[in-house]
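Table 4 source record.
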Amino acid sequence: MMDRLQRGVLKVKSKSLNWQRDTLWGMGAGGRFFQNARGARIVIYHGICQGGHTRFNNIFLTRDVFEGQLKLYKKYFNVISLDDFYAQRFSAGRYNICLTFDDGFANNHKYVMPLLEQYQVPATFFVTGIREHGYDILWNDFLGIISRYGPAGLEYKGEHFKKNKWNKYISQTSGLMMQDIIRAGGFGLKVEMMELLGGLVDFRDTKQDEDFWLQMTEQQIRELSQCKYATIGGHTDYHNDLAKIPVADARAEMLGSKKFLENIIQKEVNAFAFPYGTYTRDVVAAAKELGYRQLLAMEFFYPEDFEDSAMRERLTVSPFISVNNQMHANVTGRY
């Protein structure tokens, strides 16, 4: 395991390389790398907003940055659907990229769908079934908002929590982050948390923050599915960590999400993305039994994953680097 000094050196080197690549790009000499690149990768996006993209988390991009990436995809890459990626219908003369979006934010319908149509680029959207259960927000986004706007310290279930410099609530007893404590449980624990902390912040009255938490309605999911460049996949009912709950509960969530989405879009849903990228081999087996033939992780956890025809790894897009450097990371698979 790397020590702090080693991590610091790597971070400095990475920043230096990013600067060098951006300098070359500004001089008009950066395109050759993309022109010569060959291979294929699936990348993960989440939310798209107008500004302040790191206000609550590290998974959002601004609309302008995303559009800048689409322009480079069109110029240098072969952007393919998830079905084409699994079928290995790759271009031999360009680097192949498959775009995916996790979590089902309403901003995907608002900003992403029109841009896909404008640039004629396909993408797959992994959507939860949370709307069917009467919620318009995922628990982790709720906690992110509370952590941003809530008090410096609070009492929760007999423990005192204080914010650290990254606006994360830390237990003063165990030293654990509240988000990790909540994530380890089922949806009942998450509902309890939302009910206990819900009165701290009137975030629903702040319209400019809607892009950061609001989930798509059933009508928006239906409209997105009707876009010729969009495909809908499952992402559980409640956005639970499937590696931390009983397999029977994980199976029920994957089935519930599938039925919910298929009822809305009137199409088969055979792709599934694991929330947080986590899973067990039992969860993988359950997903296959339910009819999911395309299973998307972030990185593989087990040796047999590499031989599993249903499993694919993905690279998460970074909100902290330039469009040029993101394209470079997409090709190399590292930051």
